[in-house]
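Hi R.,

Here's the chain you asked about this morning:
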Amino acid sequence: MAFTLAPTAALQGYRLDVLDTVGSTNAVALERALAGEAAPLWIVSDNQVAGRGRRGRVWQAPRGNLAASLLLRPAVALPEAATLGFVAGLAIVEALEAVAPRARFELKWPNDVLGNRCKLVGILLESVALPGGGYALAVGIGVNVVGHPTDTPYPATNLRALGANCGAAELFLALSDAWTQAHALWRDGRGLGEIRARWLKRAAGLGSPVSVRTENRLVEGLFETIDEECRLVIREHDGTIARIAAGDVHFGVAATARSNT
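And here is the predicted structure, written out as tokens:
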């Protein structure tokens, strides 16, 4: 099956560029933006050889996995546009549920999707200032379809290992459809409350012990919710409420040990 846009996406003006091999779909999206490319544009490949993860990490992806980046020029301030990561999370989970209904998918704050409690999807937002003013945003989504790395701090998996029989192109078709619906719900941030509510229904580790390594310290306690700004809310052991904007998250009784590795 070749990569194609869902009819709903095409009708809303989304375009698609399919690359046989790419270094990083996010990098290509931002380069296109600087060259004057119009948005919204999906850039996809099933062979990404130099993918990027959070905090400069490498995103490993064998041929057959899905690498997709959506180039946008949001009309809102960059801090508001950052919540599109939660829109992307909802969209990819709904796409996964459509193609692999027997597996269990959860959203792991801030930007991962778990399949049967193992990392399946990574989401990375990157932006660039445009010469004429404003900025462009690349919403990168990488999915382990046929393979996954083994040397990761958090257990990983892939759709084939979960028993799904879909390919990257079939998954992208479902994703491009699910994105249009989730993005319409977001409404330039005005619908973030509904996005947050839907995200929490699929949240991994809600109510369980959590450990978060931030730039300044290790925060431990119970994962209570995400707040109106989509920050992670933790009730620490002494009852203090901590609101975390960024950090590496580990759940369960081994959370502290894992966060120190």
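One quick note: The chain has two domains: 7-201, 209-259.

Cheers,
M.
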